[in-house]
Amino acid sequence: MAQLEVRDLHVVFGGLRAVDGMTFDVEKGEILCLLGPNGAGKSTTLDLICGKTQPTGGSIRFQETEISQMMEFQRARLGVGRKFQVPSVYKELSVAENLSVARSMKPGIWHALTAPAVRRSKRMREILDLVGLADKTEEPAGNLSHGETQWLEIAMLIAQDSRLILMDEPTAGMTIQETARTADIFRSLSENHTLIVVEHDMSFVRTVADRIIVMNQGTLLAEGSIEEIEENEAVKTAYLGH
């Protein structure tokens, strides 16, 4: 059984069906990339899965639990994490302190920052090694490069035990070197996490995607491997400008 099952998912904004009958599965450990022209409904689909937007209808099952009517924080506690286009980190706190806040099981920054055992935990070191920030532990997050800030936010989602991570244009604004490093991070993540990625950088998509779904006007236009998508005539017409 798939880790995520989406069935006939749709949402209406003022009479406009921004997402219209989306149905797809995502397997555990898979990297699924969502492609499509601007306004195709890609980011809205992520919003619907994480709970930022409530669907008008349809079903979303995560690890066999129906989550389509849950609040955003309830889905997060089940293991659904969302990374938005603009990184959301505490710039005045260190990298380690940001992870402490993310890992804390009790509300409030103060509790997180007064739990040194959490800050020095083996798990934290493993996470920072994974995203390439092990040598930045005490660096204020505000001093990080754009790419490093993106990696810190990914680390925070891992620290929250997000099993499904939704990412919206994670490589936007990155250097070529940062983009290549991000591809490596994604491949490492897929050993224990499932990723759904909205991305416009086709070279990056070719590097990381196990499968691609192309959306157009809120609907699923095509799905398959990168080779199948590039040869799909409907995709060429709607997205690649055939």
UniProtKB/TrEMBL annotation:
Keywords: ATP-binding, Nucleotide-binding, Transport. GO terms for molecular function: ATP binding; ATP hydrolysis activity. One of its GO terms (cellular component) is plasma membrane. The keyword Nucleotide-binding applies. Signal peptide: none annotated. Residues 4-242 form the ABC transporter domain. It comes from the Bacteria. Transmembrane segments: none annotated. Pfam families: ABC_tran (PF00005). PANTHER family: CONSERVED COMPONENT OF ABC TRANSPORTER FOR NATURAL AMINO ACIDS-RELATED, HIGH-AFFINITY BRANCHED-CHAIN AMINO ACID TRANSPORT ATP-BINDING PROTEIN. This is Urea transport system ATP-binding protein.
